[in-house]
Amino acid sequence: MKDFTPAVATALAAIALAACASTQAQTPASASAEAAPAADPLYVRQVMQQRINPAIMGVWDVGNNAMNEEGGIDPALMDDAKWSALQDAAARLASAARDMAAAQAIRAAHPGDSGVAEGEVTMAKVQQLIDADPAGFRQAAADQAAHAEQLANAAASQDAAAAGPLVAEMDGVCESCHARYWYAE
Prior knowledge:
The chain is mainly alpha-helical. The protein has two domains: about 5-35; about 40-180, Up-down Bundle (Four Helix Bundle (Hemerythrin (Met), subunit A)), CATH 1.20.120. The chain contains seven helices and two strands. Helix 4 (about 80-100) runs antiparallel to helix 6 (about 135-155) and helix 6 runs antiparallel to helix 7 (about 160-180). The longest helix is centred in the middle third of the chain and has 23 residues, at about 80-100. The termini are far apart.
């Protein structure tokens, strides 16, 4: 390997940078945009059925079975296994909600999974509602994730006073998104 003086090395580096810049300038913008892979769409119905619903059922299973007269969690009805199950369900819920919040392309349902029962909102209508306010949808998902993370933390520390209200509020957090994007009039 040959040693260059600092001046020669600097000149060679400048030539290399100029060559790269020249090559990039000749590349049409559309070619670089085409080279970037499109984000895979997130299918909301699939995430709801496969991830959100099982996780929220886990939260409610533990929380509802340990509820006291005031609507909170009775620590006497909890043990390490129940706290762990609550923490796991809340963490899975947070993970799925974070994925929805971060999705670049959001689709109501996969084309092969768009059927609905009579009287139900069509997936085309749900898609229209999401398309009309994708930032709002992402924010609702982020709110769900934050709420679920708080619950996972409360369950990890076996804090019944904090976990109880978080479980009780979970239905409202879910409904705030459903009312806007799934069941809107």
